Amino acid sequence: MSRIALLLVVAGALAGQRAQAQEDEIIAEGRILDARSGKAIPARIRYSSIPTGGISGRFYDSTFSFTIFGSAKYQITAESEGYNPRTVIVNPSEVLNNTLRRDILLTPKGETVILNNLIFDRGKATIDPKSFRELDEVAQMMKENPRMEIQLEGHTDNVGSAKANLKLSQERVEAVKKYLVSQGVSKNRIKTHAYGGSQPLRNEMTPEARAMNRRVEMRILKD
Q1: Could you report the per-residue pLDDT of 63-111, keeping only the tens digit for each?
Q2: Of 78, 2, 83, which is closest to residue 44 (Cα–Cα)?
Q3: Is the dihedral of CA 147, 80, 133, 155 positive or negative?
Q4: Which of 214, 217, 166, 174 is nearest to 192 (CA)?
Q5: Inside any domain, residue 152
Q6: Which domain holds residue 193?
Q7: Facing residues of 150 across strands?
Q8: 66 - beta bridge partners?
Q9: CA 139/CA 184 separation, integer angstroms
Q10: How many structural domains comprise the chain?
């Protein structure tokens, strides 16, 4: 093989490696937003690979963007003055067009965080596996902040027996607590309180309003 031909082969191989590297490169990006108003919030942002934390970084902004490689999950935590901290987890298996987009919604201190993606079987305290991702994020946040203590507050709609609704809401928060403990969070850091249907978010007797009233909220007692 001539020297020129050899150089062309090497150049082609290097180009292929660069193209493969670009193909494997994933950008994680998102915004830090007030959960109530949707406005951007400057925050202290830190990220690290899970479980080892071998790759990490931090910065201060209302947006984030960083490159990840491989199949490791990453946790991203945002903290801002006057707001409860929040941790989310991004998974390369969910990439779309080489981009993982995840906005982080922060709730003002003193207000509860509604676990919007927490789903139970109808009329039961069995947690749907689709809910594990959000609960894993709560567990990761608590492990990252070992002084944090929370209270899980259970709510149902206000249809049917008040006594049965109170019992169901208690069973559901206990199920959530059990899951968090199974993920390595001390049970002593998790309190529970059941409200049944006594604190509806909406009073209309529609399926949409009833669904909104069936919820578990998280109150951060100490961080």
Answers
A1: 999 998 788 899 999 999 999 999 999 999 888 788 999 999 999 998 9
A2: 78
A3: positive
A4: 174
A5: yes
A6: 113-222
A7: 190, 220
A8: 28
A9: 7
A10: 2
CATH (domain of 212): 3.30.1330.60
* pLDDT tens by residue, 159-181: 889 999 999 999 999 999 999 99
Statement to judge: residues 88 and 128 lie in one domain: no
The type of residue at 74 is Y
**Residue whose structure tokens are 């809910």:** 131
Size of the chain, expressed as the number of residues it contains: 223
Q: How sure is the predictor about 8, in pLDDT bands with cuts at 50, 70 and 90? A: very low
Query: pLDDT of 188-218, one tens digit each?
Result: 999 999 999 999 888 888 888 888 888 999 9
Query: Whole-angstrom Cα distance, residue 103 to residue 80?
Result: 15
Looking up tokens 């191989």, which residue turns up? 13
DSSP code at position 94? G
* 131 Cβ contact partners less than 8 Å away, ≥ 6 residues apart: 115, 117, 118, 119, 120
- β partners of residue 109: none
- Name the pTM for this structure: 0.80
Task: Let me know whether 84 and 39 are in one domain.
Answer: yes
